[in-house]
């Protein structure tokens, strides 16, 4: 049992790399048939199997790593100070994002989907007035909205739950964490979480489809809160993490096989399976989905433990920059994609331009933000005085 665990540098790198994957994924959303804010004229099914490489596990991994980071901060600062700091570092960027960063996404969505002719100022009056008239059939745009910042809202709620749980349990939280780590050995590291995730997916997904609206998103809460609390408990047991390094190749192989099986399943025509076979096959698909997702997370953490378990100037810079980058990246993608449509670039070149411009402009914003006393709290970075007092090496970012 360790009440004051050491910093797990490799998980900082996992979080950083996961956010980079997120940027590429959101660029991909412009080119697939799935609903999104704006759409390319070249949107098709072509790259959807590539999107599937990360979609089952990317957010779950971020919630799990966020649980680890939250648990380490909680052990260091105590519940009251932890909840105050986390609320300031999450709620302020969330409100700022909903009022300033997110609205251009919603504006361009109604321009492209509903041929809205009003100015941005006209739209903002409707946005702030909670106008609900932007509809396609029964599908109406809810405003104000947090769009991709739903992750921040969920993280804040989970943070409150973790703080209350640790405050209520006291030292028993660490004892439970030790028991959990002792249970998760060998094949159980793979089988037990997959069983729980599969149970949630089979029993809840059809009843509670994804909404990202917080209050009714029960399937996602079952998955993301579980992974967040799992990370929070395992953060207190450093001997657990080397086990994932030993499993990394096995986990990677299982994840690759799961991706291949899912790719085949989603490509099957609707009439291939008989009516009697569809339900069992759907349940099998959901088990394979969870097997893929969990093993991809294990592989990512295991390889990071092997190759990235160290501090560096690059880690310190990226750990501070990644949250501002996350806040602005999707708005930049949507705005840039809409703006360059008249150029009629080939889809591959256009996608590369989107990735390059989004990364460059996102990090430009992050560099401006971290130098500004006014902007730092709005983007989830500690005030300069606190940063200097704690030292850059120990800087904790919101995610």
In short:
With 399 residues, the protein is mainly α. The protein has one domain.
Write up what this structure looks like.
The protein has about 400 residues and is mainly alpha-helical. It has one domain. About 70% of the residues lie in helices and about 0% in strands. The protein has a two-stranded antiparallel sheet with strand order 1-2. A hairpin with a 2-residue loop joins strand 1 and strand 2 (about 140). Helix 9 (about 190-205) runs antiparallel to helix 10. The longest helix has about 35 residues, at about 275-305. It is globular, with a radius of gyration of 21 Å. The relative contact order is 0.15.
Q: What fraction of residues sit in β-strands?
A: under 5%
Give the number of helices: 16
Please provide the count of β strands.
2
Q: What is the helix/strand order?
A: HHHHHHEEHHHHHHHHHH
Give the terminus-to-terminus CA distance.
25 Å
- Strand line-up in the sheet with most strands: 1-2
Q: Regions with pLDDT < 50 over 5+ consecutive residues?
A: 392-398
What is the share of helical residues?
A: 55-70%
Oligomer: single chain
Secondary-structure class = mainly alpha
Q: Cα-atom Rg, whole angstroms? A: 21 Å
Average residue pLDDT: 93
The biggest beta sheet is recorded as: 2 strands, antiparallel
What is the number of independent domains?
Answer: 1
Form type: globular
GO molecular function: acyltransferase activity
Transmembrane segments: 12-32, 57-75, 87-107, 149-168, 180-198, 218-235, 247-266, 286-305, 317-339, 351-369
Organism: Massilia violaceinigra
Keywords: Acyltransferase, Membrane, Transferase, Transmembrane, Transmembrane helix
């Amino acid at each position: 049992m360790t009440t004051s665990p050491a910093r797990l540098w490799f998980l900082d790198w996992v979080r950083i790399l996961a956010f980079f994957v997120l940027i590429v994924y959101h660029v991909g959303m412009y080119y697939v048939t799935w609903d999104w804010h704006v759409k390319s004229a070249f949107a098709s099914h072509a790259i959807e199997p590539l999107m599937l490489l990360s979609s089952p596990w990317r957010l779950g991994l971020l919630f799990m790593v966020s649980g680890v980071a939250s648990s380490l901060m909680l052990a260091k600062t105590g519940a009251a100070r932890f909840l105050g700091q986390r609320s300031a570092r999450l709620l302020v960027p969330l409100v700022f994002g909903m009022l300033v960063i997110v609205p251009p996404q919603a504006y361009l969505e109604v321009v492209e989907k509903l041929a809205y002719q009003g100015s941005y100022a006209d739209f903002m009056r409707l946005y702030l007035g909670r106008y609900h008239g932007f509809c396609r059939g029964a599908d109406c745009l809810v405003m104000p909205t947090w769009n991709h910042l739903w992750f921040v809202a969920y993280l804040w709620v989970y943070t409150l739950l973790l703080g209350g749980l640790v405050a209520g349990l006291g030292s028993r939280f660490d004892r439970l964490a030790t028991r959990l780590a002792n249970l998760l050995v060998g094949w159980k590291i793979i089988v037990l979480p997959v069983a729980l995730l599969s149970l949630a997916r089979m029993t809840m997904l059809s009843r509670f489809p994804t909404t990202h609206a917080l209050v009714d998103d029960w399937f996602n809460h079952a998955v993301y809160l579980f992974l967040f609390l799992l990370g929070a408990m395992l953060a207190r047991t450093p001997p657990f993490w080397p086990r994932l390094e030993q499993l990394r190749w096995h986990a990677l192989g299982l994840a690759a096989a799961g991706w291949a099986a899912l790719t085949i399943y989603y490509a099957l025509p609707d009439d291939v399976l008989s009516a009697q076979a569809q339900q069992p096959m759907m349940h099998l698909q959901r088990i394979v989905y969870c097997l893929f997702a969990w093993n991809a997370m294990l592989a990512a953490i295991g390889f990071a433990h092997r190759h990235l378990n160290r501090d560096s100037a690059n880690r310190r810079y990226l750990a501070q920059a990644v949250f501002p980058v996350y806040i602005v990246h999707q708005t930049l993608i949507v705005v840039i994609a809409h703006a360059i449509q008249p150029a009629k670039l080939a889809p591959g070149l256009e996608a590369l331009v989107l990735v390059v411009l989004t990364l460059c402009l996102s990090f430009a914003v992050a560099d401006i933000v971290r130098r500004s006393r006014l902007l730092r709290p709005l983007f989830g970075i500690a005030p300069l005085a606190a940063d200097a007092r704690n030292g850059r090496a120990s800087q904790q970012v919101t995610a």
